[in-house]
Amino acid sequence: MTDSSRFSCRSCSSNRHQPVLDLGLQPLANNLPLPTDLHRPEPRFPLRVVVCDDCHLIQITDIVPPVDLFSEYLYFSSVSDALLRHSKQAVDRHLTEESLGPHSFVVEIASNDGYLLRNFVAERVPCLGIEPASNIARVASQAGIPTLNRFFTRELAAELVRDRQPADLILANNVFAHVPDINDFVAGLATLIAPTGRIVLEFPYACDLIEHLEFDTIYHEHVFYFSLTALVPLFARHGLEPFDVLRLPIHGGSLRLSVIPAGSRPPRPAVRRLLDEEARKGVDQPAYCANFARRVHTLREDLLQLLRQLRSEGKRIAAYGASAKGSTLLNFYGIGRDHFDCIEFVADRSTAKQGRLTPGSHLPIVPPGDLLRLRPDYALLLTWNFAEEILAQQKDYRDAGGRFILPLPSVQIVQTDP
User: Fold this and answer.
1) Average pLDDT of the segment spanning 42-61
2) How far is CA 121 from CA 126, 141, 147, 176, in A?
3) Residue 312: which CATH number?
4) What is the DSSP letter of 340?
5) How far apart, in whole angstroms, are the C-alpha atoms of residue 348 and residue 365?
6) Alpha-carbon distance 160 to 238, whole Å?
7) How far lies 283's CA from each of 209, 268, 291, 359, 361, in Å?
8) In the chain, how many domains are there?
9) Can you tell me the distance from the alpha carbon of 382 to that of 418, in angstroms, rounded to the nearest whole number?
10) Is 23 helix (H, G, I), strand (E, B) or coil?
11) Is the pLDDT of residue 77 over 70?
């Protein structure tokens, strides 16, 4: 356990920081136990967030080694139709903007089951996925996606340049925030990218986290919560600079940030616009995060009050989405078998999760069809970031009288499509 008073920023090494939120002791959000595992102790780790006073990077203080988090993994990206559409649209854009073809080389870091790279394979663009989870890398390889079962480091980047060629395009979707040694990771990007190449990173946006109370995106896998302001000095340290930035609605609000070798081409105006917007918001001031914890605690009380009221009225409640964000919410709110036992089960589309239990709260994970079959009156939507997709998939349950509860940014019962 890290002494937060002696914590040093993992980007700039400053020891000056301010507390943002303490979520208490939390289990690992993607370690879903089997019912037969309940006799074993389930490890829990502190989950505390601070913001650096000097570079303004928001980050957790206590790190779980990546090998414990990612060597075996139960999240398969191909399960989400919305994510598949999002990825195909992104690849189509990359193919055009970077003029990629049979002599190019595309690398994706944390390529999961090949859900994105399969679009490059279909276009006959040489590519390589780097995926640390052996079970998922195996699935990708069997699907014909060239995949290396390794963690991405500066050392691996140097190997790829020596044995293959520099990359014309490096993609890293929802992994940049997961890497404790962020300077080694960025140094690896700088090593691997071709002089005229582009690095494209997608990650949840810290300003959306703070402003929309998206505290449940905080878990041990997510070491960092990035603003563009915090990233500029990190990239400059390694000879890189932002080239373009696009705000995306996915995952509750994300950035798609393009990064290039410094000076290789003029940055696009969107970079300056977002930096100016963050300056107006005061992202570089302590007051920006000051009230976050108080607002999150109020949100918790609002949901717990609603659940207690529904239970007192004899209503039955389930949940949808055995997600990492759902684990954070359930455990921070004290909802589960050993605390406030108000939820019967959690429905989830992933067959890899069905038959398991949610971390810490130990709620059974069942197929989504069980919502219609068992007909609870309400379903708490833990995967609120895919609300539109899930509400459409669950039309029959809703037509039968079932109602979804959205837990944030304010607690609401969905009567019509959002």
Assistant:
1) 96
2) 7, 12, 12, 24
3) 3.40.50.720
4) B
5) 7
6) 18
7) 12, 21, 13, 33, 35
8) 2
9) 15
10) strand
11) no
pLDDT band at 76 (very low <50, low <70, confident <90, very high): low
pLDDT in the model for residue 70: 47
Residue with tokens 């990546």: 66
Q: Is 352 helix (H, G, I), strand (E, B) or coil?
A: coil
Distance CA 106, CA 127 (A): 4
> In a 10 Å sphere around its CB, with 0-12 CB exposed, 13-18 middle and 19+ buried, how is residue 193 labelled?
buried
Q: Considering the chain, what percentage of its residues have pLDDT values greater than 90? A: 76
User: How many CB atoms are located within 10 Å of the residue 213 CB?
Assistant: 18
Q: Are residues 254 and 180 in the same domain?
A: yes
State the residue range of the domain holding 212. Answer: 70-289
Give the C-alpha separation, 354 to 382, whole Å: 16
Q: Cα(first)–Cα(last) distance of the chain, in Å?
A: 41
Q: What is the pLDDT of residue 298?
A: 97
Give the sheet arrangement for strand 167-173, strand by strand. Answer: 147-148, 127-130, 106-109, 167-173, 193-204, 254-261, 240-248
- What is the Cα–Cα distance from 376 to 24, expressed in whole angstroms? 30
Q: Are residues 241 and 177 in the same domain?
A: yes
Rounded Cα–Cα distance for residues 231 and 44 (Å)? 30
CB contact at 8 A, 227 and 283:
yes
Place of tokens 């529904």: 310
Tokens at residue 102, please? Answer: 């049979």
Strands 167-173 and 106-109, bridge-based pairing: parallel
The Cα–Cα gap between 402 and 415 comes to 10
pLDDT at 249: 85
φ and ψ at residue 148, rounded to 5 degrees: -110, 125
Count the Cβ atoms, other than its own, within 10 Å of residue 10.
20
User: Is residue 263 located within the same domain as residue 276?
Assistant: yes
Neighbours of 211 (CB within 10 A): 15
Determine the Cα–Cα distance for residues 75 and 327; give it in Å rounded to an integer.
14
Interval 139-182: pLDDT, tens:
889 999 999 999 999 999 999 999 999 999 999 998 999 999 99
| Structure-token match 């996915």, residue found | 250
Same domain flag for 353 and 374: yes
